[in-house]
Amino acid sequence: MRASRKTVVLAKIEDTYGVDALPDPTNDAIQVVSADPSPDYKFLENNELSPTLSRRPGMSAGGTWKIDIKVKLRGSGDKTKEPRIGRLIEACSFKKEVLDSDGDGYTDTYKYTPISSLDSQKSLTIYLYKDGELYKFVGCKGDISLDAEVREFSEVTFSFVGKLLERVEAPVPDVTYEVTKPVVFKDAMCKIDDTFAPRFSKVSIGLNNTITAVDDANSSDGIWKVFITDRKPSGSFDPLATLPSEYDFLTKFENGDVATLNFTLGQEEGNKVVVTSKIQFSDYKFSDKDGVLTNDMTFNLVTENGDDELIIEFK
């Protein structure tokens, strides 16, 4: 009998793609809500003929694995120290910048922005323990989505694709986690175009990466590497319906105007995340929430200069 809650995830950026980065329980443990691995193997059916209608056995031809991980959003607790979730974000085709934004000589911001160079993408080694069993994955790259709802913990979902290096029986290790509490979504300081402050209850943003496993007949498993080859980021939120004189969502939608949406998750130094996005509304609908008129607004994240449609900053 094995317990589902006895699950541990370790993750570390690889120096060389696909080479085990050897994550350790002290420095590389990621506190998760869920972590679910599943094979994405090609199964070959055997269609050879025989004297009967019975089928001959087929076989698996191998492939990649999908590793879905959900975490509660938190910083490191120290603005000079990178949050552990940062390495997961980097492996979703983001670059990291370490900044001294106030010029006092000390790091105070870790900034993540998307990249378009396939050769610059970071990859992860992920160790996933499931009560007595260890799965080791290498060359992992993924997709990311953020969901925040008022007075709830904000959560980030990652969907990684990688190769299974090894599966062994192993006890779940003792780990050291970040001591910060997950951020609760309130006091968000949300602004559209830096001027209008909407009243809303929830927001979602997803990068919607396309993850491609490149075939290679010379490889032992038939796969060369995993790349993120495209993205189509989008999102949604539910502002209270406004009069056009307050903020004209419908005209913005009809004209295809680009707006800036920014909001903050958490307020404590070292455990604060600022999200800034460039959005273009893609739908306009009315909705009823407990007798209050709202707009269900969906949007696409777009760019004017390239690789700037989404910025995530830990402060």
DSSP E strands, number: 18
What series of H and E elements makes up the topology? EEEEHEEEEEEEEEEHEEEE
- How many helices? The count is 2
Mean pLDDT: 96
Strand content: over 45%
Distance between the termini: 43 Å
Helicity range: under 10%
Q: Unreliable segments (pLDDT under 50, ≥5 consecutive)?
A: none
Shape: globular
Largest sheet: 16 strands, antiparallel
Provide the domain count: 1
Q: Given the helix and strand composition, which structural class is it?
A: mainly beta
Rg from Cα: 22 Å
Pfam families: Phage_tube_2 (PF18906)
Summarize the structure.
It holds the Pfam family Phage_tube_2. It is built from 2 helices and 18 strands. By secondary structure, it is mainly beta.
Task: Give the arrangement of secondary structure elements.
Blueprint: E1 7-13, E2 29-30, E3 34-46, E4 56-72, H1 85-90, E5 94-99, E6 109-114, E7 124-130, E8 133-149, E9 155-169, E10 191-192, E11 202-206, E12 209-215, E13 223-231, E14 234-237, H2 249-255, E15 258-268, E16 271-289, E17 292-301, E18 310-314
Antiparallel strand pairs: 1-2, 1-7, 3-4, 4-9, 5-6, 6-18, 7-8, 8-9, 8-11, 10-15, 11-14, 12-13, 14-17, 15-16, 16-17, 16-18
